[in-house]
Amino acid sequence: MGCCVSTSSRSTCSTGSQGDAVSPSCFEILFCGQKRTKRTFSDHVIALQHLPSVPHRIFTNGKSRSSCIFTQQGRKGINQDAMIVWEDFMSEDVTFCGVFDGHGPHGHLVARKVRDALPLKLLSSMHSYQSRQNGSGRTCFKGNSKKSDGGDSEKDGSPEDRLNSLWREAFMKSYKAMDKELRSHPNLDCFCSGSTAVSIVKQGSNLFMGYIGDSRAIMGSKDSNDSLVAIQLTVDLKPDLPREAERIKRCKGRVFALQDEPEVPTVWLPFDDAPGLAMARAFGDFCLKEYGVISIPEFSHRFLTERDQFIVLASDGVWDVLSNEEVVEIVSSAPTRSSAARILVDSAAREWKIKYPTSKMDDCAVVCLFLDGKMDSESDYEEQGFSSATLQSNHSGNAVESDDGQKSEPSLQRNFTVRSSEGSESYSRLQSEFEMNADTVAAEDQNWSGLEGVTRVNSLIQLPRFSEERPNP
Question: With CB atoms counted within 10 Å of each terminal CB, which end of the chain scores lower, N or C?
């Protein structure tokens, strides 16, 4: 099923220094301006089949102007992780990043489908808003709007609140449309296959996040002592979180851990010990959608400051063996920024061997977004093991990716060994508007750590074996 969106409006948006305000003539959601200084993707109609030629969009190992990404296949078979960085996403001041961890027989296809289609659905939602505004008089919101000091901003509908509401609606609608497309896809069986998603949109000094599953986003930021600290931006939506478990049980699903994996709570059908899904929210997995697993994202908004240095998105193959603090330390100490994602994956691979020598390493995917918009020179980049041909293909998005998920990527050496520790970060509540019987996750001041001394075969334990007769619920 294709996805197509037109974003033909013009804007004079320009990327200023972090935290600086930009021209008030710029509607930094793209939709209120006069004339763009240079032509970008937002001037075109884009369909899925045209994505490989979109500029400033990378999805294989490489770097962009402000980010680097890297994935490595684990020991469980095909690499089911997918990732993307899309600069100039709607305008020159907007960047989309995402990591998607597939599971089940067709998890790699689901993750790649979501990687390609979800950003277009966000664009479509924003374009729909633009059309409504053009019909009723245009309204400008500033992407670099600062939080109001007044205590009644929620009452008066300030620009930052309207911007936040707009992105919340866009994420909610896009995730819902994505899951609906997967359910009706004629060539992709998502009944027992699915994917996580952690997606962010950086627009000026605003950071908008939507996520489901157990992929995670953190931020490296400087504290009052000018020391780097880890700030967890998302929560791993596991089945044992109180409100997640309550919703699943209310829908007659079951949540329990296997005896040989007591630290891995999973979701099971009411009438069969299957499939054993290790997350409470996911795209696909339609065998469990009637039993409490949902695809409604958690949404949050954060104002970025000059103290905020970089953001890391990664699949649970990283978080299962590395803490938030270790990840921040590894990224910040990388010899070059363009090598940070690769070195982080190498560190995770090393830790898998040390902590779980009898286990099969999970797939790892990492996106590192540097908030000052600066990267290394191309010569430094090539010294890290990437050829100029790889660099060029990643900038144009033309890397080869076969149906089995294998990609032609540079061979890199491993580095770094780190120790495990704990971190913490609270998160905000979310009221869902689009699915019946959906609950929010309670705010918890705790770190959602990875596995401790257990071996997980996959996020999906086994496929359900349906019989003709099922016991009544």
Answer: C
Q: What is the mean pLDDT of the chain?
A: 76
Q: How far apart are CA 97 and CA 115, in angstroms?
A: 10
> Is pLDDT at 353 greater than 80 in this prediction?
yes
pLDDT at 91: 83
Cα 82 from Cα 417, distance rounded (Å): 25
Sign of CA dihedral 26, 164, 302, 279: negative
Let me know: does 286 contact 340? Beta carbons within 8 Å. no
> Quick check: bond before 275 cis, omega within 30?
yes
- List CB contacts of 135: < 8 A, sequence separation 6 or more: none
Residue 45 tokens read as 């109609």
71 three-class SS: strand
DSSP 286: T
List C-alpha distances in Å: 117 to 34, 110, 120, 131, 320: 29, 10, 5, 21, 28
Helix axes 107-136, 159-184, angle to 10 degrees: 140
Cross-strand partners of 201? 96, 208
Structure tokens belonging to residue 416: 């770094």
Sign of the CA dihedral 44, 47, 49, 54?
A: positive
More reliable by pLDDT, 27 or 287: 287
Identify the CA nearest to 235 among candidates 421, 452, 447, 439: 447
Amino acid present at 344? L
- Res 46: pLDDT: 60
**pLDDT tens digits along 238-259:** 999 999 999 999 999 999 999 8
Please count the CA atoms within 13 angstroms of the CA of 374 that sit on its side-chain side.
5
Average pLDDT over residues 227-241: 97
Name every residue whose Cβ is closer than 8 Å to that of residue 450 and which is 6 or more positions away in sequence: 316, 319, 320, 321, 322
**Beta strands at 254-256 and 228-232: parallel, antiparallel or unpaired:** unpaired
Does pTM surpass 0.70? yes
| Residues 326 and 291 sit within 8 Å (Cβ to Cβ) | no
Q: What angle do CA 464, 468, 470 make, to 5 degrees?
A: 70
pLDDT of 99-144, one tens digit each?
Answer: 999 999 999 999 999 999 999 999 998 888 777 766 655 544 445 5
Q: Is the dihedral of CA 209, 212, 215, 216 positive or negative?
A: positive
